[in-house]
Amino acid sequence: MIPNELKKFFEERGRILLIKGAAGTGKTILGFKLLEEMNEFGDTIWVNSRDMDSADISGLEEIVPNERRLDAAHPEETIEPHLFKKNESSKEFMHIYSEVIKALYKEISEIENPTVVIDSFEGLTTELNEMEKEILRVRLARLARDTKANIAVVMETFRPNPLDYLADGVVTLEENTIEDRKIREIRVNKLRGTAINRPKYLFTLEDGKFRYFESFEIEDIARPVNPYPTPDFGDKISTGIGDLDVLLEGGYIKGSVNLFEIERDVGKAYQYLLLPTIINHINQGRGCVYIPSKGEDVARWKRLLTPFIGEEQFCKHVRSLEKYVNIIETKPFVVPCKGKSIDDDVAQLALERRKFKKQKEPVLSIVGLDSLEYKYGLEESAKVMYEWTSDTKQQNDVDILITNRGQKLAGEIEPISNTHWKVMNVDGSIIFFGVLPKTEIYNFSVDVTKGYNNPRLTPVI
Fold this sequence. Notes:
10-stranded mixed beta sheet; 26% strand
């Protein structure tokens, strides 16, 4: 799957696209993916100017037939052998690569809507001087214009190059890091005649294949389904997310404190990392207590949860600490608070937690640390949370604590946390990784094809 801008760009014929980037950024694999997707619209040709053994060509046989693969690294083996001699002078090399262009003209003239990938330009021009390189650039441009072929040229650099100005499009593959973890991004520098909706995309090379990530979005579910709960695995409760259960070797430990640190530009997307845990928990008849994060309330969680657990189950198994309202308006799942004394307010919720414990099952707590710190101050909030988490560990319950980046209360809680996760927005995609335990970076998406929100964690490798 390649970005939609590239597909639209290649709807026009006779175009040249440069694929640039440092060694190891995935240019060759993107070239394979481009050919695979363009197979739907016409025939494809692969021109290799490097030793084939040095390139990952897994699956190339299914994408490009043997007769459409030109080996410019050993042209005497695939392109009219009598043309080539052992003389390796610059003049002789220019002659060889002229024959490569002639061979391309011949191949392209015999097929429809051709797409060509040349890997790489440097491989074609290693032995040429600058004037000869310029001649080859012009010939490539003429080849595209004359034959209406779309040509993607791999370049082993991200620096400006004279071919940038001849090309109709330029994309750059980059490797960057977030907290010592590698991420991959494709930057859309230029696409002549095509609107660039997103200048950068996060992507992965998982399983040796190029895959970019869309912006995070949640699709509506027309017919919600109540997912079958995943039972406990030994001393752990399931997160409700298969990929996360694998990371945690079964789920959250009973008696654990789990800290989620959310970047401000993530918005509400992080909630879809928590929903499966809550749904899985309540669908086993277990209690859940909730202290909303700043700007949130239990009404939103009710709207998100009830399609998958039912309103009766929600009212029975959820208790939320909310700002004091008229007693007539109070719902069975609301625990009113006045916001004056944290000891008094949280004590009311702690009482509800103890009531759930009569079932001899672990209670799940979702706590917005930012709202506590805002309402009651750092010192008082830290004291109460020490007591709360201590009780969690003694009673084999499970806490999920939500914090914003840089929040002071999070710094107080982190040393007593069993796990620590970070959720960020990169190029419109949501990423997720563990600080404790330390994990690689994952793209977070949600699959709704089964009738419920089924999060997926895809490694960005």
